[in-house]
Fold:
Amino acid sequence: MIFITAKFRVKPEHADNWPSITADFTSATRSEPGCLWFDWSRSLDDPNEYVLVEAFADDEAATHHVTSAHFKGAQQHLPPHLVETPRIVNFKVPQDDWSELGELAVK
Structure:
C-alpha cells in the first residue's frame, strides 16, 4: 500500500472550521476505489495543525486520487486557508492494513 502522512498548518482563523472546510474533499476521497483510509487529527501541541493519515491500495489508486476532480478542487480551495505548504511523508509498505503494536498489547 501507499501510506501517506501530511501536516497542514492552518491559519488560526480557520483552524476550528478545518473539518468542515475539508469535509467534501474528505468524503469524496474516502469513497474512491482503493482508498484504504483518509483520517484527519488535530495536533495536541498546536491547535492550528492538522495531521492527515491516508493510504491507498496501490499506484493505480493513488494516481486516481491525485487526478480526480475533487483533488483538483482541493488544490484551489484549501491553500488559502493554510499558513504554509503542507509537509508530507509518502512511502510504500508491504501490507494492506494496520499492524498491531505488540509492545502495548491489550491482554
Q: What stands out?
A: The beta strands are 2-9, 35-42, 49-56, 87-92.
